[in-house]
Each structure stands twice: as C-alpha cells, then as structure tokens.
Sequence to fold (86 residues):
Amino acid sequence: MIPERLFHRDVESFRQLVPKISGRNQLIGRVLEVKYDGLIAQVTLSIGKDRVTSIITAEAAKELRLKPGQRAAALVKATEVMILRV
Fold:
C-alpha cells in the first residue's frame, strides 16, 4: 500500500504530465486484474482502498498493454469510465 502523502504527490505529478485531458475526474491507481472475453476486456483498478472496474474493448486493453501492478487512471465522465495507462 502506498502511503497517502506519497500517493498524493504521485497523483499531482501525473496530472502535470497529462494536461491535454479535459476530464477532471481522474482516479489514479494500479491495475489489479484484466479479464478478456472476446471483443471486451474487464479492467479492475485499485484506487486507495477502493476498486473501480471498467469494460473496454479488448483491442484498447491490448494497445495499452495493461497488466496487474501497472499504474493506470480511470477517467470518469457521466456513466463512462475510460482507462489510461500511466
């Protein structure tokens, strides 16, 4: 588990690296699991003490090369959650 003060600093440095994203609801964490089923992938992130799961295309997950342990961000917009490898 990342200490809260270090995690906060990590989040702020990430946001400085990705200024082109207009969404402000960026939840940064680590990939826990990626499950593929045909054309879709179920990606689960650990964000602090919580988990966020998103369904994205298998092609997108493969392009991002998402694997457990990697840093990633969930970008939340209305009812959609997008995954961004960081």
Observations:
- Residues 21 and 38 are 29 Å apart (CA to CA).
- The helical segments are 4-17, 58-64.
- The longest helix spans residues 4-17.
- The chain has one domain: 4-85.
